[in-house]
DNA sequence: AATGCCATGTAACCGGTTACATGATTTA
DNA sequence: TAAATCATGTAACCGGTTACATGGCATT
C-alpha cells in the first residue's frame, strides 16, 4: 500500500494540485510506482480525511483546482512508514515470462511479434529514463538526497535494460527450429 | 490476466490435482507469477466451466482430490493467447524504491534495517533459483523447449541479483551523514 | 479417541483499472 | 459560438489477498 506515501512524498517535495501531482508522479517515481488520476483524487480525499494533508482552492484559479499540502501529522506518518517492516514484499510478475513457458509447452505460436513490440516499447522507456538522468543528474550527484534519487532512477534504468536483454535472448531462441538443437 | 494460461501451461505439462498444481507452480513459474491455492481452485472451476479442462476424482484417492487435464479447446485457447497482443503490459512496482524517495525527501528514518531484511530474503530466493538451475539444467540445455525454460529461470536469477545489488548500493548511501557529500 | 495435517472450498475486502460525467477554460 | 481540452470526480468491476470453514486421513 504505497500510494498514499508516494503522494505524501511528492507533496512534501512541493505542494500541488491533483493534476500537477499526476504529472510530477510520472517524472519521478514512475519507474517503480504509477497511479491514474482517479486513484490520485480518491487517495488525496483519504489523506485529507486522515488529517495528513489539507487543501485549499487555488487563488487565481481557472477552474476547481485545489492545492494540497502536507501537515505535520502527514510528515510524521511518512517517517513512520519509511521505517515500517514490510512483511510480504510485492512479488515480481511478468506476463511475457508466462508466455515463454507456455510457448515451450505447446510449441511455436507467434510469440516473436509480441516480443518485438515489447522491445520497442521498453527501448522508448529506457530512452526516456536516460534523458531524465541526463537532465537531472548531469552536474554530478553530491548530496545524500540526490544520490538516493539517482539510485532509484538508475535502478529503473538497469531493470528496463535487463528486460530488453532477456527479450532479445528470447527472440534468438524462438528463431530456432522447433525440435532443433 | 495470466493466471488461467499459466495454469493451462502447467496442466499441459502434466495433469494434476489443485494442490499438486499449487506446488508445481511454485517450482516452475514462481519467479514471474504466483498464485495462492484459493486463486487456483477458483480459476480451475472457471477453466472447467469454459470447457478448457476437465476433472475427475482421483482413483485411489485419500480424500476429495480431483485431477485436471487440458482439453483440445484448452490447448487452442493457450496457443491463441500466446500470440495475442498485450496492450498494456503490467507496470513494474517496487515499494522499496518508493521508500527510498520518501527517505530522500524527509531525511533518515530507519530504512536501513528494512533493506537488510530485504537483502536476506532476496539472497534466500536467489539461492533457491540457483539450486533449481543446478538440478534442472546441469546436463546442458539442448532443445528449444529447455532453452526457453532455462531463459525464464535465468531471467529470474538476473532480476533478483539486480535487486540485491541495488539494495546494497542503497545501504551505502543511507550510511552517509544526512547533509554530507 | 484426540490431535494435527492436508485438500478443497466460501466469503469479504482492497488496490488498481476502466468507463463515464460534469463544469470550466481555451481554441478554432 | 462551437469544439476541443482540462481538472475533478463517480461508479462498476476484477484480480489478488486474507480469514475462515469443512471433512477426510495420518499420527499419537
Account of the protein in words:
Chain A is built from 7 helices and 3 strands; from the N terminus they run αβααββαααα. With 181 residues, chain A is mostly helical. Chain A has 2 domains: 3-83, Orthogonal Bundle (Arc Repressor Mutant, subunit A), CATH 1.10.10; 95-174. In chain A, a hairpin with an 8-residue loop joins β2 (53-57) and β3. In chain A, α1 (3-13) packs across α3 (37-49) and α6 packs antiparallel against α7 (144-174). The model of chain A has no long low-confidence stretch (mean pLDDT 93). At the A-B interface, α1, α4, α5, α6 and α7 of A face α1, α4, α5, α6 and α7 of B. Chain A binds a DNA duplex (28 and 28 nucleotides) through residues 1, 3, 17-19, 22, 34-39, 41-42, 45, 62-66, 88.
